[in-house]
Amino acid sequence: MDVRRNMVRSEWVLPIDVVGLADAPSVGGKAANLGELSRGGFPVPGGFVVTKEGYLDAVDKAGVRDELRSRALPPSGGDSALTDAASELRSRILDVPVPDSLRQEIADAYHHLGAGVRVAVRSSAPAEDAADTSFAGIHDSFTDVGGVDELIDAIRKCWASLWSERALTYRGVRSVTDEPSIAVVVQRMVDSEVSGVAFTADPRTGDLDRIVIEAASGLGEVVVGGQVEPDTYVLSKPDFRVVSEHIGSQSFAITVDNDREQSREIPLADRGKRHLTGERLRRLAELVTSVEHHYGAPQDVEFAFVGDDLWLVQTRPITTLESLPEGAVSSEPREPAGAPLLHGLGASPGRASGRVRILHSVAEAARVGEGDVLVATMTRPDWLPVLRRAAAIVTDGGGITCHAAIVGRELGRPVVVGSRDGTTTLVDGDVVTVDGSTGVVYAGSAASTEPTVSAPVAAPARVAHPEVTATSVYVNLATPDVADQVAAMDVDGVGLLRAEFMIMDALAGRHPVAMLAEGRRDEYVEKMAAGVARIAAAFEPRPVIYRAIDLRTNEFSNLAGGDVEPVEDNPMIGYRGCFRYVREPELFRLDLDVLRSVRQHHRNVHLMIPFVRTRWELEQCLDLVNGHPLGDDRSMRRWIMAEVPSVVHWLPEYARLGIDGVSIGTNDLTQLILGVDRDSEICRDLFDTMDPAVLDAIDRIIERATAAGLTTSLCGQAVSTDPGLAEHLVRQGITSVSVTPDAAVRTRRNVAAAERRVLLESARSQPQR
Question: 472-765 has which CATH code?
Answer without folding.
Answer: 3.20.20.60
